[in-house]
Amino acid sequence: MSNPSTDPAFNIFTLPTHVESFISPFWETLQENNHFLLQRIKTRRSSIMRNVLGTVQNVLDTKQSPYRILYRSTNGTCLQIAVGETEKQTDLAWRWIEANLLPPLAVLEDNEKEEFVATKINSIVTRRDAGTDEISTDEKVRTASRSFRQTFNVPVTERLVNYYSCAYYTNRFTSQGWLYISENYVAFYSYLLGYETKLLVELKAVQDIRKEKSKRGVFSDAIKLVMKDKTEHFFSNLFKRDQVYDILVQLTGLAMQRVLKSTALEQSPGGDISIDIRDSDIDSTSDKDSLNTSGERSSNRGSTALPAAEIRKMMQPLKMDLAAQKRDERFRARFRLPSTEQLCMNVSAAHFIESEEGEEKRIQGRMCLSEAFLTFSSTDRGQYYEAVIPLYTIRRVEKLNDKIHPFSIKFVNWHQAHTQFHLSVTKQQYEEFSNRLTANLRKQIKYMKMLKKFLTTCPSELVVADKTNEEIDQSPGGLGLTFGFPGDPKKLKDKSKMKLWKKYFNEYGRNLTIVKTAQFGRLVRVGLPNRLRGEIWETCSGSIHQRFMNQGLYHRILEENKDKTSLSLEEIEKDLNRSLPEYSAYQTPQGIDSLRRVLSAYSWKDPELGYCQAMNIVTSAILIYMSEEQAFFTLSVLCDDMLPGYYSTSMYGALLDQIIFEHLLESTMPVLFNHFKKKDIQLSVACLPWFLSLYINSMPLLFAFRVLDCFFMDGPKILFQIGYVKFSILKINGDDLMKTSDDGAFINVLKKYFNSLHEPLYPDSENVKARTLTKFNELLLVAYREFSSISDEKIRELRQTHQLKVVAGIESFAKRSTIRNIDDTAGFSKEEMGILYDKFYNVLYYRQKQQQQQQTKGDRMDYSEFEKFIGSLASWAQFSRSDNNHHHVTGNDQDERQSKVGKTFMVRLFKKFDRGEQGSVNLQDAMIGLGSIIKGNHNDQISLFFELHDVDKDDYLNRDELLQFSETLLWIFRDTPDQDDGNHLNAVSTFLRNAFEYSEVKEEGSQEKFLSLASLRMLVLADEVLENFFEQEFSNSFQLVEKAVEKQRSLGREIFDSLFATGVKFANNRPKILSSTPSSTTTVTTTTTASTSSASNTSASISSQITKNDQQKSHTEQSSTMTSVASTPSPSNTTKTDSDDITVNSTTLNGNKKNESQQVQSTESKEEKNKEDDDDLAQFTKSHSNDSDDEDSNDEDDEEDGDVLEEVDRLLKEYGDDDEN
């Protein structure tokens, strides 16, 4: 059996779908047998009916492919098993069915046949379309995705997220149609009475997404997309506006990460960024749930040959995967869990605890289960209770027989603490939860053995055990154990704080099993005791879980990389002596070595991020209270989860939060903000260092550590709250900031305030406790009281809102910097270099994930990416999907040979561009290579082709190399229609004949002849067509233009003209003679359209219809109406050449020749008013359907390719060489 990924016969098969009946007024049967039917959609004779039908299909989203294959069972039911765009394509599948499915069906029982067919087709589709929408469980997704890909010509691997009915607003017209959202694109399609509107934009080009009201300002049902080039797209009538907005925000966020990863400046932290197809819910889905939603019992059976994990990953609709990914991200962020955790199940539950008065207190909340954790959080307003229970700390689970609460579970953890939960679920949910919990607990048993050793590194264990301070200090800790902790322990009341924490540990657990309550927050905000600060930090941040699961990783990384060097290590060495020099440890080798090891280990753990400035400040601070291993994992959580993008080349995370800070300042304190704006005071001058250093460099260390206490507990929101407090307090106390007039005065006011944080707030108060309060106490008080509205959710929403603007700015800066640093511009202007930059990095952006994991990374592209890059510049370099599959199928030998020629040429061109012979090309290489082509003269082009085909590098072309030279030219000319009697084919034929004739021997006595560069240049310049190609056509084929947005702007007047002209035609019964000129035929068959892509389809249709019409006429009439070709040997070839002549004009219409396009459209508009009578129109339309025209046009191209290669073979035979190359 052929490979489904390469055999073209399999390209049109789809998952079997039930259809009501094969008898339909919309379909006609072309071929049939006892089991299968090949049908084609009927073409309406009336243009009005075609337009109305197309409009109805657009409104109902029922657009169909023109061909389909049905399986007809004995009981009358039908399965649709294939859909195709061309008759040739569908016929391949039909022949395969006759050869491979009919014989087995002949011997099967009737009740077995349908299952056999469905299983076979399902197996083909699942193997061919792994990871695509073609095997989605949702039939609507399969249909919509197929329509989306066909309409907008996007790759089959592009997965559709969802589609919505909406209206697209242009300057003067609103089109009702469908909005498609895929992984990488937003698209809109509308078809209204013969006019279509198409829009396809890349998600990475979106700079802002806004919720809007409709144009009349009545309903909040619209979304506006603002692009990086400042264009805007307005979509209204969105009944699920918020859902669309959330999906777009999520997808553009993923696109943002990929943009940062693919730009020249930024290498994104945290590894590969992609839409991660993980769905934890799939494991709970029963076999019944995983069946095809349309009800085919055999579809799922056909896919069971694949691994279960692959089926789960492929069959899930992408919309569900994205929803699961978003849900999992929020779940992990909420409880600070490792990135490997996915939410399996969550249920409503209640927890009962005893209050200090001895009464039982009920806490209502939600219980969540993941692979390795069980969490519970209170949902009662004003009550804070949060438990994160690692499953490897649970010793025993009991189901309680409680009549009042029948669904209750009791846990006993490692520390012998008993916890009881009452689940508010049904019996079925209770059983499902219990089974999942049991399965996950069994997987975690192996980690329980690691607990005893790990807990010896936690000081809280010694505190609860009533160990002395000396014994506690023996456990692993930070540099403070050796060099002392900042501050006076007595003034900080360290001993009293330890007692309070001991009491809390006894009541609510410790380290891995601690429960966070309101009391926990109060203890953190008053300041942590020195010896427990490191452990509480890693408990709050979640890094303690990573340290437990990766014991020994830190020391292993250091050992494996001890003799290696990198750029990150060089940068680390520069900053070591600038890290908290005021702390004594960092003036000694011991402290410097400790800091070096932590930073180096992280740079090896995440080589893409490596090391960035300000990392040293934060790491040096946490090392005072943490061991090196603790600091290593805490730094990982900071960089990857809590502050993503802060410590990167572009600092996009810090820049983003800076913009959010200014936005919130404007909304909460507009007077102060307007003052800064009026005086042109840049907040980022002072505020950006606050965020990067987490205030460590902005205030005395004692208070900076208090801020870190709150930061690890409450997350990034505390950075904003502290920042606002500074402004609000200074504003209240003397309006100092309102007096500032420049950046210098602004910074001085802030420094003065920072240096006064230790001063008493009420120095003259009679109350002793009041006199101990400092300005820092006031700072925290106002932060938590006055700015409590700044929540994590609000920060997350603002980050999503503003992140696109930040990335657009970074991308623009990277583009300018890269272009400015190009050593050799190769003659390109800045605008041209900008276009090349965009196209180059656009290819890197869409680089496949498996390619990202190979050696070619960063700003270099391998051959496959180079092929796409050149294809984006020159149409002749674009390969079809079948070309890339390298298939060998009977009947396609010519296509295979032509594809092989093209691949060979492109590989040689790639090696030519690869100046450093590294197997990859960077932007500088691409510019130099393209510059020699686009900016070079005809001699440069001839020399390039000579060099690429001189395989043995002897400065001569032998017979085989000359043949390859000619075949390359034919491959480049394959889609170039001839305007003057097949002149490209004639030129290549003449060149090959003359090349063989003028070849010379290199040595006397040798029979083998060669062609030198000088002789090649002479032969090329002697032919007008080839001279023009090397002088203009080849260089001009590289189009340095931005990709145009395909859409239609105005339709009103054209719709009226079309309807009026059609109405006049039906009202007028006077017969008219069908004109025999090509222009008249064009007016009859051209479908009115205003979009660019429609013009292309129409032009192809024109050439096919003219050819078919002429074939029905006599040879004499053909000679009188079209130009005959003297060099073509037969009348049949004359017809093909004529059709090619017309195709040149239609292709020129699409070739950015504006004047000719306007002239053709003007002619069509005038001639459309003189349409023929109904009889002639019906007869013509019946024999020339639009759908078959496209297919026939493709057939003619294939025939022409065959004639080209036959001409080469004829020349070879003529000169005594019968072998094909």
TrEMBL record:
User: Which stretches of sequence are listed as region Disordered?
Assistant: 271-308, 1071-1221
The organism sits in which domain of life?
A: Eukaryota
Which organism was this protein described from? Phascolomyces articulosus
What is an example of a Pfam family matching this protein?
RabGAP-TBC
Q: Where is the EF-hand domain?
A: 937-972
Using the record's annotation, list all stretches that form the Rab-GAP TBC domain.
527-715
Glycoprotein among keywords: no
Q: Which GO terms describe its molecular function?
A: calcium ion binding; GTPase activator activity; small GTPase binding
Keywords linked to the UniProt accession:
Calcium, GTPase activation
From start to end residue, where is composition biased (Polar residues)? 291-303, 1117-1163
Q: Where is the composition biased (Acidic residues)?
A: 1188-1206
- Entry's InterPro entries? EF-hand-dom_pair, EF_Hand_1_Ca_BS, EF_hand_dom, GRAM, PH-like_dom_sf, Rab-GAP-TBC_dom, Rab-GAP_TBC_sf, Rab_GAP_TBC_domain
- What is this protein's name? Rab-GTPase-TBC domain-containing protein
